[in-house]
Amino acid sequence: MHVEHIAVVGAGAVGCYFGGMLARAGVPVTLIGRAQHVEAINRDGLFVERNDFQTYVQLQADTRIESVRNATIVLLCVKTIDTETAAAAIAPHLGRDTLLVSFQNGVDNAERIQNTTGINAIPAVVYVAAEMSGPGRVKHNGRGDIVIGNVPRLSSLFTDVGIPCRVSDNIAGELWTKLVMNCAYNAISAVTGSRYAFIKDNPFSRGIMRNLIAEVVEVGYAAGVRLPSTEQLFDAALTLGDAMATAISSTAQDIARGRLTEIDALNGYVANRGKELGIPTPVNSTLHALVKLLESPAR
To answer: What is the CATH T-level fold of the domain 6-167, as seen in this structure?
Structure first.
């Protein structure tokens, strides 16, 4: 039996993918999510589909938040709009040595968890393209790697099971770098219904991406974040588009399903932070507004 027991709170695409990979390697995992997925997983197992394998993985699944009680590591994979609510529900059930790790988009989830519960959550940067293809079924479309600070328990866990994990001494910069990537693709994908390869290859959307990235970098610099240059991050965004060529953004998936999105924590966060720092962000502000318009029927 593995020394760690993992609970995944928010068994959507990201949570199911990493939970499935951990369980496939023999780590005890409990997924906590919606009833339709939990029922399918408890009946058949979690179906994980990748280019190199397709298999059912056996693990535990539950709808009850108190199922985190026996976990030594909790991966928080809920949408950013649910961060405070989920953290408050988890807090009474955590052991003293249990690690709470934010596997979420956005740059301020750990701070929000701390403010709500007093828990020193660990921020992680997650790069993966995945989608729920049906109840209890997750499809991997690209990447699947993690960046964390110097937390040996986590780095050794992921490395031991073959999940690529990089340790960084600049986790704030890593979070903002991921924010750049999310801002560059998520909203454009949602507004146009396009996959990443099409967005990066079209000269018009490439121009939007570059201007958008320049805004995020300027806001990040003004906030005291150590970031690469605009050109370096633009090149990284194009490389990401190659690695996740067939991906549809999570924001686009939410819009298609009539759900609220995380856009307030992405382009909306940049626009609001820019206002606070006196930095114009017309591209991010426009894309934020357009996604909010698409999102409005969900409200």
So the answer is: Rossmann fold (3.40.50)
| Total-model pTM | 0.92
Tallying the residues shown for the chain, one arrives at 299
State whether residue 278 is helix, strand or coil.
coil
Give the residue from 131, 106, 99, 124 showing the smallest Cα distance to 14. Answer: 131
Cα distance between the two ends of the chain: 45
DSSP 3-state assignment of 295? helix
Given this model, what pLDDT does residue 243 score? 87
DSSP secondary structure letter of residue 265:
G
pLDDT in tens, 126-143: 999 888 999 999 999 888
pLDDT average, residue stretch 53-79: 96
Q: Where are the domains of the chain?
A: 6-167, 171-298
Query: What DSSP state is assigned to residue 121?
Result: P
* Residue 283 C-alpha from the chain's centroid: 22
Cα torsion for 71, 103, 10, 82, to the nearest 10°?
120
Residue pair 99/9 in contact by the 8 Å Cβ criterion: no
CATH node for 171-298? 1.10.1040.10
- 3-state SS, residue 8: strand
Q: What is the SS3 assignment for 197?
A: helix
The radius of gyration computed from the CA coordinates of the chain, to the nearest angstrom, equals 18
pLDDT(298) > 80: no
Q: Where are the alpha helices (DSSP H) in 91-143?
A: 109-117
CB 164 within 8 A of CB 146: yes
Neighbours of 156 (CB within 10 A): 12
